[in-house]
Amino acid sequence: MMFWTKTATFGLLLASAASAFTVTHTSPTFRSRALSATEDKDAVVSEETEKIVETFNLEAYISSHIPALEEAMLAAVKSTVPQTDNICKSMEYSLMAGGKRIRPMLAIAACEMFGGSATEAMPTAVALEMIHTMSLIHDDLPMMDNDDLRRGKPTNHIVFGEQVAILAGDALLSISFETVAKKTPKSVAAKKVLDVIGRMGTAVGQIGLAGGQVMDLECEAKDDVTLEDLTWIHTHKTATLLQVAICSGAIIGGATEEEVKSLETFALDIGLAFQIADDILDVTASTEDLGKTAAKDLDSDKTTYPKILGLEESKVEAQRLIDDAKALMKPFGDRAIPLLAMADFIVDRKN
């Protein structure tokens, strides 16, 4: 695998990125209804494509990419000097603990949809999983969600201590940017790499994951939290990183600006559907099935979609978001089948 190693300094890349990207945050309007017959005829993907999606072997598709993905992930956190052995073990423990790998797979599928290769998207895919893993390590800390189980294993701070867990998360976040800057193949234009780095930065900042997490904490145990508040939280805490995954993959693969904008809306819809599915599973699935403590949101008195909408209405809303998202993919035809299959998986999954 050839990687782009002759980059400008990382600091220069970040400084230059500001003018190279735009991330769209379009707050969706919630409406609890099915698509009308007219909308169904004009908007949804074709019946032929839908049949292909239903028979598409998503598990085999993901499995075909997992070995290369996890090889690259493991290499990225390998200790090179004895002094870093402990923090690298902590990083590896959570990064390689399993999981659905949704974000990296969305990036790879989007890249391939526009003619790019998995090799070109791989550094970004690895970086996205690093960012996601960082968020899980920090979410589980006693001062945050205070959880001791993640993916069926003791959480990072239980094994390595709070101090090392915090620093391992910080390190994963830092090297995620380094991975994209230094490892993306030369076949990908530098301007595209800058765009990806800029989008990643936005996704984890105050208007992204960090800001969404803060508002989530502020809304705990409150009775006056609105659906608009909840949508803001999860647009930024959850959906934005999925949006960056899909759009970054598309950019690397050669998508036009108009195509990327269309994918931003698709990704936002499936990102919110992902969170609704998580909230539903928190109250319907067991700890064994989830690999983490069940009913944790309920015990913490968090604001969730079932709490505001009710369980059945939440299921309807999740499906509506997926249906709306899939309708946006009609122009891409069969090229979008892996992304469409992943959209279905988001609401059908059991953990």
Q: What can you see in these coordinates?
A:
- The chain has 351 residues and is mainly α.
- It has 18 helices and two strands.
- The chain has helices at residues 10-17, 37-43, 47-55, 58-76, 85-95, 102-113, 118-139, 156-160, 162-183, 190-204, 209-218, 227-253, 257-284, 287-290, 296-299, 305-309, 311-327, 337-348, and strands at residues 149-150, 153-154.
- Strands 1-2 form a two-stranded antiparallel sheet.
- Strand 1 (149-150) and strand 2 (153-154) form a beta hairpin.
- Helix 7 (118-139) runs antiparallel to helix 9 and helix 17 (311-327) packs antiparallel against helix 18 (337-348).
- The protein is globular.
- The model is unreliable at 1-42 (pLDDT under 50).
